[in-house]
Amino acid sequence: MSIKSLRLFFGLPLPHRQAAAINVWRNGLTLGGRPVDKRNLHLTLVFLGSQPVERLDELQRLAGQIRGKGFELKLDRLEVGRHGLVSLGSSQPPEALIQLAGELHDSLRAAGYPLEERAFWPHLTLARQCRTHPVLDSLPDFAWTAERFVLFHSTSDEQGGVYRPLFHWPLPVPD
């Protein structure tokens, strides 16, 4: 059996230390939903959905043309969305993040990829299908320097869904 399509998205990976800290903090909340596995914590830039395997070379080429810069990303807001989605957001998303997502989106759209029309919403999903609003003892305060973006493949293993990095591109950090 050969694989014909892959479920793909571009995103920002978390350093292991930040993923561990966010996981511990999130586990201290009473969410009652389905928590995102620590290994899958990320910030989505552009969701591509199911794409033919043959387009991977084109995706690498398009992403390689992006000239984003590294930036400090601070997640300092807990957000509760529709359908019980609980996530971390930023009270002041860095302009470099908005530009990176916008440039990726524009490049992919120009190449004929069907993308969602909604505005970019920078967030890191903590859990889905939560039935209660979490009570906070302290506000979230997580930060890291985004130094690369990644093309992820969404698949599954015996433990559930897993996001596997396929390719990555540097985001040079300004001096």
Give an overview in words.
The chain is α+β, with helices and mostly antiparallel strands. The chain has a domain at 5-71 and 93-122 and 147-170: Cyclic Phosphodiesterase, Chain: A, CATH 3.90.1140. Helices cover 21% and strands 38% of the residues. The protein has 3 helices and 10 strands, in the order βαββαβββαββββ. A hairpin with a 5-residue loop joins strand 5 (77-80) and strand 6 (86-89). The radius of gyration is 16 Å and the shape is globular. The protein starts with a strand and ends in a 5-residue tail after the last strand. The relative contact order is 0.27. The mean pLDDT is 92. Belongs to the 2H phosphoesterase superfamily. ThpR family. A motif (HXTX 1) lies at residues 42-45. Keywords: Hydrolase, Ligase. A motif (HXTX 2) lies at residues 123-126. One of its GO terms (molecular function) is 2',3'-cyclic-nucleotide 3'-phosphodiesterase activity.
